[in-house]
């Protein structure tokens, strides 16, 4: 009985302490909603969006992005802004700040408002400001 308990503990440790693909270092992530490090990773499906973080809360964030919509009456395009809520895994919590540009992917409904999860950080928010100067 002790051997089976040790095997299950070792499997759980191996799943939670995987190496990060981008930096190659060990990442401790105990979030069950993490798409890369979770014990049962969330399956991504459907649409993928990129946008700027406008609000960050514990375990979730809000992104905003612009899209263009064609208006047939005037034969012109107009800009519209979309806000989406996404789950923020524990392993990315320290990396992502308000103003950063990130990528989110659709997954199963996690809560009433959250149907997306953060996949990766694309760039810092201050990089855009520095490029304009």
Protein described:
The chain has 133 residues and is of the alpha+beta class. The chain has a single domain, classed as OB fold (Dihydrolipoamide Acetyltransferase, E2P), CATH 2.40.50.1000. It is 17% helix and 36% strand. It contains two helices and five strands, in the order H-E-E-E-E-E-H. Strands 1-2-3-5-4 form a five-stranded mixed barrel. A hairpin with a 4-residue loop joins strand 2 and strand 3. The radius of gyration is 19 Å and the shape is globular. It starts with a helix and ends with a helix. About 11% of the residues have low confidence.
Outline, from the CA principal axes? Answer: globular
Q: Helix count?
A: 2
Largest beta-sheet characterization: 5 strands, mixed, barrel
CATH architecture: Beta Barrel
Q: What's the end-to-end separation, in Å? A: 65 Å
Query: pLDDT average, as an integer?
Result: 81
Query: What low-confidence regions span 5 or more consecutive residues with pLDDT below 50?
Result: 6-19
Total strand count, please?
5
Strand content: 35-45%
CATH class: Mainly Beta
Supply Rg.
Answer: 19 Å
Listing every helix as H and every strand as E from the N terminus to the C terminus, the arrangement reads HEEEEEH
Strand order of the largest sheet: 1-2-3-5-4
* Count of spatially separate domains: 1
CATH topology assignment: OB fold (Dihydrolipoamide Acetyltransferase, E2P)
As a percent range, the share of helical residues equals 10-25%
Overall structural class, as computed from helix and strand content, comes to alpha+beta
């Amino acid at each position: 009985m002790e051997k089976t308990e040790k095997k299950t503990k070792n499997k759980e440790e191996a799943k939670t302490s995987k190496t990060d693909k981008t930096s190659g270092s060990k990442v401790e992530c105990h979030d069950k909603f993490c798409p890369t490090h979770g014990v049962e990773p969330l399956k991504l499906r459907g649409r993928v969006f990129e946008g700027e973080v406008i609000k960050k809360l514990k375990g979730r964030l809000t992104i905003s992005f612009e899209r263009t919509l064609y208006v047939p009456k005037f034969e012109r395009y107009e800009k519209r802004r979309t806000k989406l809520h996404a789950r923020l895994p524990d392993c990315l919590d320290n990396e992502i700040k308000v103003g950063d540009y990130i990528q989110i992917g659709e997954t199963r409904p996690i809560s009433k408002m959250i149907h997306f999860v953060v996949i990766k950080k694309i760039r810092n928010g201050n990089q855009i400001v520095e490029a304009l100067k």
